[in-house]
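Researcher: Here's the sequence for the chain we discussed earlier.
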Amino acid sequence: MAAEIQDQADSIHDMIEQHKGALISQLNDVCIQEVQTVQEKEAKIHTVLTGMESNQNYLERLLKFGTELEVLSSHKQITKHLTKMLYQQIDGLPNKLGLAFNRGDKQQGIETLFGKVEICRLPMGKADVDSLDATDIAMSSVLPNISSVPELLLQFESKGPNDTKDIWPSGMSMCKDGSMVIIDRDNKRVKFYNDSGEFLRDFGGSGDHALGSPYDVTVMVNGNVAVTDYGDESVKIFTLDGKPVLKISGHFKHPRGIASNSKGQLIVVDCGLRRLTIHNSDDGTIIHTVEGKDEEGFDYFTDPYYVTVTRSGQIIVTDWAAPNIKVFNDQGKFVAKYGTYGIRQDQVLQPYGVCTDYFGYIFVADNHNHRIHLLMPDGRFQKFFLSKKDGLWHPMSLGINNKGYLVVTEGLGQVKVFKYM
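Model: Thanks. This is the structure I predict for it:
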């Protein structure tokens, strides 16, 4: 654990050094530009002064050495020179450069950015316990800046040699080595691509593990992949090369989204039963059920689709028909929601995939509006991260790869990778 803490400290130190360098570079650029502006103004003023001195010398010589007739005959030219000197405007500096450094709050939010150590007592023989405290959404005041224009690093089509229908990449998850696991719902395949977008392999299961209507996938802590199959009302677990491990059934009516938390547990969205279930990944038993009902018994869920889990254990669910996203703490208690029906800011049409990055930023795929919402860790709208004008078309599933880049699947098979920091 000490090594992990040191690694985290080193990462944040590197980030601070990068930010410091960017600020100093910005300061240097502004100062250099200001010096250049001053030098340009100085050169223009010198030219004006030279002209004024020339006019002055001409008039002094004329008055000293010229005859009265010469002065009288030159009165128009003299008047012109005097008027020019009187009304000569010097283009100086309209303002001066002001510089200030607004210090950030060194205390507020540092725990969220750096992390904390949770101390508890484990019963003998038990591998883990639930989090000590149920917390609301954490918000950091020292988050890194998001680029104003995300950079498209990679784009490819998620084709496979066994495709017989149009591609429909409904689900996606990331492996530790940066490779991508994509569910092709209509071709009933689990497809693997490396971080350059090159096809590696695929499988469709066999026998009792044959995929009927796969929808979403998650790469588990142990490296296996778990796939929701709503046609078979089950969750099927495979090794990375497609060997069957476990089939979880008897708990679902229409399983869609799936995610795994840091404890290795599986969180499954059931849109038929309008609930979440948290499962032991070893045998599939239900550890906890989030019924999604308020204190008066009304459903929180209308038609839930996708799910993701934050680093602190909070569960975020997209509700396609509501339409909004809903946030629960790691104990299943409802915390917050974001979005209403529409096309404006804070509004969504058909929210699909959702993911969070290392810092807690939340990305939501707004499928029908062809855009991705960027939310702060506390659920507040930040901006439209990508939209149709960026070439986005029906975004479906989202994920963050091992380099911290956002990966997006689109309807009919396009996969795009964006750098945003």
